[in-house]
Design brief:
Elements lengths: L2 E3 L12 E2 L2 H12 L6 E4 L19 E2 L1 H10 L4 E5 L6 E4 L6 E5 L15 E8 L2 E9 L3 E6 L2 E2 L6
Parallel strand pairs: 1-3, 2-4, 3-5, 5-7, 6-11
Antiparallel strand pairs: 6-7, 8-9, 9-10
Helix pairs in contact: 1-2
Length: about 160
């Protein structure tokens, strides 16, 4: 399965915003268009959706130029799973604007929140000719696995 990594990290001292430039988006489009037929996984640190059922990103933590990245991915017409971290919340949604996109964020492997029973997690992506399955693993005294269907996106997010 082709994996395209997009450079979204843009360290600075004032905020934890990410960034992707128009040139980087064009380069990612070129890579995706050159992939063999079938599903493609695109991964970046920052999610392109600012809000899902599991999180609502503050403006100082968002990916700058996310709408342009999202539009490019959607306009390819390819079945794409966009995988991101940054929010440290599990979320798997069908993009509400583009039928060919699914958006996944995953819990950090060694992540603990105050008061939470879970002590980390990860996602397993299974690729099929017509799309993706996602298994979510969380550690709560032992590893627990769940097959998670994508939820309908409830907000455009960008």
């Amino acid at each position: 399965t082709p994996l395209v990594l997009v450079p979204t990290v843009s360290p600075n001292r004032i905020s934890s915003k990410g960034r992707i430039t128009p040139e980087q988006i064009a380069a990612a489009r070129h890579l995706i268009e050159g992939c063999p037929p079938g599903p493609v996984i695109v991964a970046g640190h920052y999610p392109y959706l600012y809000k899902t059922y599991a999180y609502n990103e503050a403006s100082g933590r968002r990916l700058r130029n996310a709408p342009a990245l999202r539009a490019m991915l959607g306009e390819t017409g390819r079945q794409i799973l966009y995988a991101a971290g940054h929010v440290h919340r599990f979320s798997f949604v069908k993009d509400p604007q583009y039928d060919n996109l699914q958006h996944l964020t995953s819990v950090a492997f060694f992540h603990q929140r105050r008061g939470a029973i879970e002590a980390g997690g990860f996602s397993e992506v299974q690729v099929h000719i017509d799309g993706f399955n996602v298994l979510s693993y969380v550690h709560a005294n032992k590893w627990q696995r769940n097959l998670i269907p994508p939820k309908e996106g409830t907000e455009a997010g960008v």
